[in-house]
Design a protein that fits this description.
With 111 residues, the protein is mainly α. It has helices at residues 36-44, 51-59, 67-76, 81-87, 91-104; strands at 18-19, 30-31. The longest helix has 14 residues, at 91-104. Helix 2 (51-59) crosses helix 3 (67-76).
């Protein structure tokens, strides 16, 4: 991008430079510009956690009894089946999710 990243262009928009992470699955963009530009980025590009981060956070809520329920919840949140299948496949991640689900699961009350 051309111009100073903190100066508005002729249309009044902020020119924001950002760097992409080279780590697969990392957040799409991180803003290194201070002040107005960072606030603009937060407002215009809302944060969405990576699939693995979200899977771990759902597993510790106590709502899901096993990893397959976590995967169903991720699909309902808009993550694609291909993302879920490729990133949450394998015994290591499944075991880690199962441990977190088991440690924090609270069965619904019986009426």
């Amino acid at each position: 991008m051309e111009g100073n990243p903190l100066e508005p262009d002729v249309a009044g928009r902020l020119l924001i430079t950002h760097r992409r992470s080279n780590v697969a699955g990392a957040r799409a963009a991180r803003c290194y510009a201070p002040g107005r530009a960072a606030r603009f980025l937060r407002e215009q590009m809302p944060f969405r956690p990576t699939l693995i981060e979200r899977a771990y956070s759902l597993a510790v809520t106590g709502i899901y009894a096993n990893p397959s329920e976590v995967k169903k919840a991720l699909a309902l949140e808009g993550y694609t089946g291909l993302e879920i299948q490729t990133q949450l496949h394998g015994s290591t991640i499944t075991t880690a999710l199962m441990k977190r689900c088991k440690d924090s699961y609270r069965a619904p009350p019986v009426e």
